[in-house]
Every structure is written in structure tokens, then in C-alpha cells.
Amino acid sequence: MSTPDDTRTTPPAQLPRATVRQSRARCTALFLTTTAAAAASLLLPAALGRAVDLLLAGPGDGRATPWVLVCAALVLLLAVLDTVETVLSATTNARGTAWLRKLLTGHVLAVGPRAAGRFGPGDLVARLVGNAAHAGTAPATAAALLAALAAPLGAVVALWLVDPLLAAVFLAGAPVLTLLLRAFARDSSRCVARYQEAQGRIAAGLAEALGGFRTIAAGGTAGRETARVLRPLPELAREGRRMWQVQGRAAAQAVAVAPLLQIGVLAVAGVLLVRHRLSVGDVLAASRYAVLATGVGVLVGQLSGLIRARAAARRLGELLEEPPIPYGSGELPSGDGRLELRGVSVRRAGRVVLDGIDLVVPGGSTLAVVGRSGSGKSLLAALAGRLADPDDGEILLDGVPLRELTRDELRGAVGHAFERPALLGDTVADTIGLALSAPSREQVVAAARTARADTFVRRLPEGYATLCADAPLSGGEAQRLGLARAFAQDARLMILDDALSSLDTVTERHIAEVLFRPAPGSSRLIVAHRVSTAARADAVVWLDGGRVRACGPHERLWQLAGYRGLFAAGQQRDGGARRTSAAAPDGEEWP
Fold first, then answer.
1. What is the sign of the dihedral through the CA atoms of 234, 238, 239 and 240?
2. How many whole angstroms separate alpha carbon 159 and alpha carbon 13?
3. Do 402 and 332 meet the contact criterion of CB atoms below 8 Å apart?
4. Quick one: how far is CA 479 from the chain centroid?
5. What is the DSSP letter of 481?
6. Cα 512 to Cα 326: distance, rounded to the nearest angstrom
7. Is 583 helix (H, G, I), strand (E, B) or coil?
8. CA distance 288 to 102
9. Rg (CA), the chain
10. Nearest to 484 by CA among 441, 526, 449
11. How far apart are alpha carbons 589 and 591 in whole angstroms?
12. Per the confidence metrics, is the pTM higher than 0.85?
């Protein structure tokens, strides 16, 4: 997969050129093939004209036979070259598209959640699938376009060789064709860009709808959601019609101009024939060269494809403009997972989401983060594991700023579990051992047992070898697999972002016994919504409006009415399980 280093060497503006470089050999072969086909097309009229003249001069003397054979050989060569061109174009397009998707997928994953936040999952998929396919045709289209120019230019030269007057007649009308192509390129570029943008909006809406299909079904809002997703469809249709109108207008104008030029060339050739300056074969060759010289239709098609590819490349370039997460070269010293947040602030869309957060999670301890929806809990958890970076302040793990750590060092030291874990990997065993380079079965099974997942995994059709796509899992079971993945990593800092929310009370109690027991070499930061979770933690930080409103042991915070109001009325009785120690572990004071 592409790495961030790959993307840094490919500036967005140079993406089409970089795509061509990746298929340099095939593009060269394609260019040579199409150029050879253009050369054969230019030689064929001359050979036909010579054969006709010899046949008219001496029908039975056999002098025309070699030229007839030359014509047949040229026709056969054109057929072979056309086949080779088709194969080369298809394979070059496929390789270019594959390279772009690999490059952009690696870059998007290196950027992290910020990419989905800016573009949205649906639009990202549309760019990486549809736009990459269009942009991937740029190398083959560019090579074919350059070769396609050879035929009209060569035909003009051939007309000049037949008689300079014929070339002069054609060139008198050539500026009109040039203006038509220029207007087509300008108008088509605007239409294609708006068309692809509308496609992206439809894809984004569809991804949102698929993510909430159960809510849509439960609410009976399928009709309204369909209308919402397809809201850009009229614009898509309008821009699609404009593209065809622009291309049709260019073709119609070319059809109107090209015959006039051909007729002009033939008329002058006829006059020269009468004056015995040209032979019949010369007139035949001139007529074919006039057709080749006015081959605007081929140029329009190639130019249209190149315009679509460049418009798609611009949309892909927007992804490359989003910088990946930079990593340092530092390593962690030996430690027990002490986490520090110093003056951490985050702004989103001009709004302060977290404001001057100062926290310390002593090594081997557990900190619960509570607060109302929108208070910044999940963002704080993301910052602690460097899934996002603060705008101000610094975050340290065992005294080392997270920004200074290498990717492997950071990701090996911090484990995550989420409310809705993504079950990545082919099998259940793969998804549990995802964070390990070479997980053993013993590690996978031990982690599953710790997360209380081993029993239901063994009941699956193939046990741990069951494909994730074939595993019928409830929300709680999927959450336990996510917890097992975090346990398998055995990191010095474990971050749980509401990762216990779907568990039944019995399972939660068993897992809590593991999470909240003393762990000298590991600390834990847990985003919590249940009072029982907060009560078990060594300390609780209460976020309110992006600020730390209070921090300390649960039993002390429980004296505050606002803190008690965070939890549902039915859970308040669980607050009776107060912790008896108000001091932070290891003799440290909680901020």
C-alpha cells in the first residue's frame, strides 16, 4: 500500500503526470503503436493512388500488382495495430487506475479520520472508485491523443506533397477547426467538473443512508431519504445533458466545416486534374488525405476523454492536499503508561471544542471521562491516542510528546476499543489479532477469553476461522471482539471510547474486573456513560462544554448535583458503590 512518503512526492497538480510516469513503458508502446497506425493510414492513400494510376496506364502488364499487395499489407497492418492498440489502452487504463487507487487509499488512511470528516465516506468512495477510474485513463488517452494529431498533420503534409495548392486550400479553413476544438475543451471542462461533483454528493448521501438504514426503516422514512439522496440528480442530469450538448455541438460544427474543406480540396484537385497537373490516382489520394486532415471526430473523442480524466484528477488532488499525520523518530523509554495533557485546545469550524485541558493519568491507573453529549469526550479520547492532533497544547506518554514518536512505536504503545468497532480482517481471528504483526492462536484465544468472547466465537460455524462477513454478531458481541483486539495488543495505554455500552451487565462486570484491577505496566482512559463504570475508576474527569468542570474520585464528585445529573435516574443507585479511597494511586494528586 502507498505510504505517506509516496504521496509527499506527488503534488496534487502533478498527479496526471505522475500517473503517466507509472505507465511510462506502456504509454510509450501505445504511442508508437498509434503513431505506426497513423503512418500506415497516411501511406495507404498514396499506395492506392499509385495502384490506380498503374492500372489505368497498363491494365494487363502487371506493374500494379506489387502496389495492390502493398495496399493489402497496409490494411492488414492497420487491423493488427488496432488490436494491439485496444489491448494496450485497456491494460494501461487498468494499471493507471490501480496505481491511483493504491496511492490515494494509502494517503487517505494516513490522513486518518480527518479525511472522512472533510469529504465524508460516500464522497471518498466516489473519488477513489469513480474518479480514479476516469483519471486512470489519462496516460492512454494522452498517448492516443498525441498520435491522433499525427494523422491530420501528416495528411496536410501529404496534401502539400501532392500539390502545395491543395494544402493551402485546406489550411485556409484550419483556424475554424482549431477554434471549435478550443471552445469544446473550455465548455466541456466546466460541465465535467460539475457532473463529477454532483456524483460525489449523491454517493455521500447514499453512504449516510446506508449507515442509518435501520433508523430509516423504523421511522418509515424511506421515501424521504430516497428523495434526499437523489436531490442532486436533476443537477447531474442537467450537467450530463450539457456535456452531450457540448460534444454534439462540437461534432455538428465539425461536420459542417469538414465537408466544406474536403469539397474545397476536391474541387481544386479536379481543376488540377483537368489541367493535367494531377493524375487520377493523385486525386484519389488527395480525397483520402482531405478526410484524414479533417478527422476532428477522433480528436473530439480523445480530447473529451482527456478532459474527463483531468477533471477527475483535480478531485483526487484535493485528497492529496489534506496532509497525512506526521510522525517523529523518537521511541518510548520504559514506563507504565503515564499520560499527560498540557493546555490542550481544539477548534472545529471556528468553534472551541476543547479549551485548555490539563490532565494527568498516572501509570497503572484508570481514568473515566464523563460528560453530556457534545462535551468533547470522544475527541479527548482521540487526542490521547493521537487519532487527532490538538490545535494548541501537548500530549505526552511516559514523558515523550506523542508527535515525536514513530508510527510503530505509538501504535504499539496505545490500544483502542470503540463503541462500534470495525471488524477488519478476513476471519474472526484476524480481527482480534489485527494490531499484532504475527499473532499466535494462543494470543488470540487468551484475548477473546479476557473479553468474554471465546464462548460465542466457538459457537460460530467455523469458530475463530469464521469469515467476519458470515459471522452473525449482535452489537454486544461485536463490541467484545473490539475489546479482545485491544486486550491482544497489551499496550501500555488502553483507550476505551464507550466500548462497554452494548454489553449486558454480567459481561460488563466480568470485563470491568480486568479493566479496573491494578495494572502496574498499563494505564486506561475510559469514556463512560454508566455510573457503575465511573464508580470503579481510580478517578473521573467531568467535561462540560469542552472544559474540565471537576476531576477526582467518583465518590467525591457524586456530592455534586450536576455530576449526579449526568447519569440516568435508574442508574443512580449504582452510585452507592462508592470508592473508599479519595487519593490518586501511586501517591499522585489528580489535577
1. positive
2. 40
3. no
4. 27
5. H
6. 35
7. coil
8. 46
9. 35
10. 449
11. 6
12. no
